C-alpha cells in the first residue's frame, strides 16, 4: 500500500490571499479554522474525527482570492454535510473587524472534501 493511500481523512484550511495578511496573520487565521473545525467535528462527526486523529490529523492548506470564493466553498460544504468553520477577524491588528479571513473544512473523507476543494491551489 502506498503512503498516500494510508490516509483516508483530511482537513482543509482555506485562506484568503486578497486581504494581503502577513504570513503570521495567515497562520493564526488558519489555526483558528483548524481548531474550530476539530472541535465541531468531534461533536458532530465523532467517528470521522477519531479516524482522522488516529491517521495523524492530516491538514491541507489552500488559498482563494476572494470572500465570494470562500463563501461558495462553505455553501458546497453545507450541501454535502461537511463540518466547516468560517473565521471572522476581531480587527485588532491587520484587517477590519468582521473580515472573513479563512475557512476550515472537515475533517472528512478525502473523496468528499475533494468535491469541494479539488480545483484550489495549495497555499504558497
The chain-level structural class is: alpha+beta
| CATH class group | Alpha Beta
Give a quick account of the main beta sheet: strands, pairing sense, barrel closure: 4 strands, mixed
Share of residues in helices: 40-55%
Radius of gyration: 14 Å
Question: Number of helical segments?
Answer: 4
Percent of sequence in beta strands: 15-25%
Multimeric organization:
single chain
The total beta strand count reads 4
What's the overall average pLDDT, rounded? Answer: 94
Give the structure's gist in a few sentences.
With 124 residues, this protein is an alpha+beta fold.
What does this structure look like?
This protein is α+β, with helices and mostly antiparallel strands and 124 residues long. It has a single domain, classed as Bit1 (3-Layer(aba) Sandwich), CATH 3.40.1490.10. Strands 2-1-4-3 form a four-stranded mixed beta sheet. Helix 1 packs across helix 2. The radius of gyration is 14 Å and the shape is globular. The termini are far apart. The model has no long low-confidence stretch (mean pLDDT 94).
Structural topology:
Blueprint: E1 9-16, H1 23-44, H2 46-54, E2 59-64, H3 67-79, E3 84-88, E4 100-109, H4 110-117
Parallel strand pairs: 1-2
Antiparallel strand pairs: 1-4, 3-4
Amino acid at each position: 500500500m502506498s503512503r498516500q493511500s494510508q490516509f483516508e481523512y483530511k482537513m482543509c484550511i482555506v485562506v484568503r490571499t486578497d486581504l494581503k495578511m502577513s504570513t503570521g496573520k495567515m497562520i493564526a487565521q488558519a489555526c483558528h479554522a483548524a481548531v474550530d473545525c476539530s472541535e465541531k467535528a468531534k461533536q458532530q462527526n465523532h467517528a470521522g474525527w477519531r479516524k482522522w486523529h488516529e491517521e495523524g490529523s492530516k491538514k491541507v492548506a489552500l488559498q482563494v482570492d476572494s470572500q465570494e470564493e470562500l463563501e461558495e466553498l462553505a455553501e458546497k460544504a453545507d450541501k454535502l454535510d461537511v463540518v466547516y468553520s468560517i473565521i471572522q477577524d476581531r480587527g485588532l491588528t491587520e484587517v477590519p473587524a468582521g473580515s472573513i479571513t479563512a475557512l476550515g473544512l472537515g475533517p472528512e473523507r478525502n473523496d468528499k472534501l475533494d468535491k469541494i476543494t479539488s480545483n484550489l491551489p495549495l497555499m504558497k
